[in-house]
Each structure stands twice: as structure tokens, then as C-alpha cells.
Design a protein that fits this description.
4-stranded mixed β-sheet, single chain, alpha/beta, about 130 residues, 3 helices, 8 strands
Length: about 130
């Protein structure tokens, strides 16, 4: 149990070499415009926190060598949606690297899994 009442997760930040490409991808997938948008930083604010996209070139002076875009195989970005099957129908014909079509997980979520253009794993899900 957290003992700090101010502790909260505010962002998931994806470091990338192509902010514009990921901005366009997530704007389409999330069906929203960025709430902040610059050439080197984009943010999509949601009810639970924000997805940020940040240029590696801007991070590099502060944390040299800390990030290698396109190499993530261990973190999944998850977004709860109202109708995951409807989202799959809307997105399935796009040039998306699909990992798993809609399926109901043992823990009760109905999910679709896919990769963003940098290879990051994304899960859209609906609680059932």
C-alpha cells in the first residue's frame, strides 16, 4: 500500500525518433487530437493520465544513451475503451502490426493487442 497520498502515475512517455509519425498514429487510434503538440513533444491527456511522445534528440543532452527507440519488448500501453470490438472494426484495415485479434482474457477484459510504428505494444480493452 502506498503511504504517500500525493503519489500518482501521471504519464507514460514514449521516446521516439519520429514524434510526428507516432502523433498521427495515436491521434487516429485514440480518436483525439493531442492536448499539447510541439515538434519534439506531444501529449494526449486521458481521464487516467497522459501518453507523452518525446524526441530522443531532446532527451539525449539530459540522459545520454538512456533511450533506444524501437527496442521496447517489455512495456505495454493500455487504454480502456467503451467497445473494443467496435475499435477493432474501425482499425483492422489500417496498416497496423496486429498481435492479437479481439479476445476475452481469463481476468475478464476483452482486448486487442497491436504494435505502434515504433514497435511498442498497445492494448485496447473493455471490461466485460
Amino acid at each position: 500500500m502506498c503511504t504517500d497520498p500525493a503519489l500518482k502515475l501521471t504519464h507514460a512517455c514514449v521516446i521516439t525518433d519520429d514524434v510526428a509519425r507516432l502523433r498521427d498514429f495515436y491521434a487516429d487510434v485514440l480518436r483525439m487530437s493531442p492536448t499539447r503538440a510541439h515538434d519534439d513533444y506531444v501529449e494526449f491527456a486521458t481521464a487516467g493520465g497522459a501518453l507523452s511522445l518525446y524526441a530522443r534528440s531532446k532527451l539525449e543532452p539530459y540522459a545520454p544513451g538512456a533511450a533506444r527507440p524501437g527496442t521496447n519488448r517489455s512495456v505495454m500501453l493500455e487504454f480502456e475503451v467503451t467497445d473494443v470490438d467496435g475499435e477493432y472494426a474501425r482499425l483492422r484495415d489500417r496498416a497496423i502490426d496486429w498481435v492479437k485479434a479481439p479476445s476475452t482474457q481469463p481476468w475478464g477484459n476483452r482486448s486487442i493487442y497491436f504494435r505502434d510504428p515504433d514497435g511498442n505494444l498497445v492494448n485496447l480493452y473493455t471490461r466485460v
